[in-house]
């Protein structure tokens, strides 16, 4: 507020601000006094001074009233806006303070989540070196956080799995999306199942990776047990029919690739039913277990001995230099199986009839090889049992005649005159 220059003006200004009606009345009284002075004054100069004074005072008082009224009107009109402005300033000040604390609060929030996560979490740089390892990760790897920091991810991996892990890591480290691998931890037989994602900068260059991992040892053991039950015979421990076909397919692929020979042997026990009938199924099971041990003990690691069901077994002979090498192997097995078996209930004398089919001489696919080996086994059995027969082209026609005889109810069978056996 500007300071008044005289006592009267100060009084007028104050009255104008506080009591506008009073100001108007005073202005009217001043105007009447001036008019009276004008009427009484005889001299024209005196009347002129009265008129000038009255006009000036009246104008000042009216102007003061108008300014005061306008000021009150503005004050009244802006009062709500001033209150809103005050609240807005306070709110924005509070938000600014919170915004300044937000990064720290956000970081603390995520750090708490990571540290309390029930899985291992590791942050790796673009080259695979550890930048951070959470508490569960420390417990799984047996490294403290400080000790893990700066170590390469591969240092946590079992030496036998390191080449595989490095290969998977290298081919995926520049790719987006989620990646997965399993490996054993260094110095243990514990298995780890790890998932990770790669992070990139604006130029699509890798800058770091976030990896989560869990102990998958128990799950792998369960999976392995399920796989074993699905692929191995529970009684003998030999591969079952399913795994036999898988191994046969793999052997054929290698034979085609390396231009090698391979063979399928089909084995049927002679006299097994008599053991079951005489001593019961428990004795029969014991006999099958001993047969499996004898067969498996004569095979190379690259070969497969499988139980196909009942008293039938099959053998895949892989990587044969020449097809003729299969028949001596089959003959040796026949000799071994003809030796007495000592069971818990007594001694059993059985034998085996074995059929042989060769790749690529007789057939070039798995199904035909098995069919021909099975037909050759029946030829050996019909020829007197306890011997080996190799598939021959005319063997199929003879067995078809035998099958026709069976359909007519005939018990007689015809056999090929030339059967290779020992």
What are the main properties of this structure?
422 residues; alpha+beta; Beta-Lactamase; Alpha-Beta Plaits; 12 strands; elongated; disordered C terminus
Structural class: alpha+beta
CATH topology of the largest domain: Alpha-Beta Plaits
CATH hierarchy class name of the largest domain:
Alpha Beta
Q: What general outline do the C-alpha atoms trace?
A: elongated
* Low-pLDDT windows of residues: 1-5, 405-422
Q: What spatial order of strands do you see in the largest sheet?
A: 2-1-5-4-3
What is the second-level CATH architecture of the largest domain? 2-Layer Sandwich
* Proportion of residues in extended strands: 15-25%
| Main β sheet profile | 5 strands, antiparallel
Extended strand count: 12
**Rg for CA atoms:** 53 Å
Can you identify the CATH superfamily of the largest domain? Reverse transcriptase/Diguanylate cyclase domain
Reading the helices and strands in chain order gives: HHHEEHHHEEEHHEHHEEHEEEHEH
Description:
With 422 residues, the protein is of the alpha+beta class. It folds into three domains: 7-93, no CATH class; 120-220, Beta-Lactamase; 232-407, Alpha-Beta Plaits, CATH 3.30.70. The protein contains 13 helices and twelve strands. The strands form three sheets. Strands 2-1-5-4-3 form a five-stranded antiparallel sheet, with helices on both faces. A five-stranded mixed sheet has the order 7-8-6-11-12, with helices on both faces. It is elongated, with a radius of gyration of 53 Å.
Compact description:
The protein is built from 13 helices and twelve strands. The chain is α+β, with helices and mostly antiparallel strands and 422 residues long.
């Amino acid at each position: 507020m500007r300071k008044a220059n005289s006592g009267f003006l100060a009084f007028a200004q104050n009255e104008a601000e506080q009591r506008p009606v009073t100001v108007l009345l005073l202005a009217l009284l001043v105007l009447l006094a001036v008019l009276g002075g004008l009427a009484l004054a005889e001299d024209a100069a005196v009347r002129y001074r009265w008129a000038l004074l009255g006009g000036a005072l009246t104008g000042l008082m009216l102007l003061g009233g108008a300014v005061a009224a306008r000021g009150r009107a503005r004050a009244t009109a802006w009062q709500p806006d001033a209150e809103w402005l005050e609240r807005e300033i306070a709110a924005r000040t509070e938000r600014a303070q919170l915004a300044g604390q937000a990064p720290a609060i956000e970081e603390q929030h995520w750090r708490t989540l990571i540290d309390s996560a029930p899985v291992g979490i590791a942050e790796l740089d673009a080259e695979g070196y550890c930048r951070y390892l959470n508490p569960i990760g420390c417990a799984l790897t047996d490294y403290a956080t400080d000790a893990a920091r700066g170590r390469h991810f591969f240092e946590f991996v079992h030496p036998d799995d390191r080449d595989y892990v490095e290969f998977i890591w290298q081919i995926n480290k520049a790719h987006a999306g989620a990646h997965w691998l399993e490996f054993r931890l260094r110095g243990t037989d514990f298995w780890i199942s790890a998932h990770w994602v790669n992070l990139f900068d604006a130029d699509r260059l890798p800058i770091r990776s976030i990896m989560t991992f869990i102990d998958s040892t128990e799950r792998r053991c369960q999976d392995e047990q399920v796989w074993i039950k699905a692929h191995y015979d529970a009684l003998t421990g030999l591969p079952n029919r399913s795994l036999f076909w898988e191994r046969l397919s793999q052997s054929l692929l290698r034979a085609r690739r390396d231009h090698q020979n391979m063979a399928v042997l089909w084995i049927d026990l002679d006299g097994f039913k008599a053991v079951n009938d005489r001593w019961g199924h428990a004795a029969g099971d014991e006999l099958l277990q001993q047969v499996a041990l004898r067969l498996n003990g004569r095979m190379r690691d690259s070969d497969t001995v499988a139980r196909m069901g009942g008293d039938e077994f099959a053998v895949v002979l892989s990587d044969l230099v020449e097809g003729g090498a299969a028949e001596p192997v089959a003959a040796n097995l026949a000799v071994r199986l003809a030796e007495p078996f000592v069971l818990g209930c007594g001694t059993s004398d059985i034998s085996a009839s074995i059929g042989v089919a060769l790749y690529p001489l007789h057939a070039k696919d798995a199904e035909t090889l098995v069919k021909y080996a099975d037909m050759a086994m029946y030829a050996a059995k019909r020829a007197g049992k306890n011997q080996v027969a190799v598939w021959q082209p005319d063997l199929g026609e003879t067995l078809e005649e035998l099958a026709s005889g069976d359909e007519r109810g005939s018990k007689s069978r015809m056999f090929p005159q030339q059967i290779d056996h020992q």
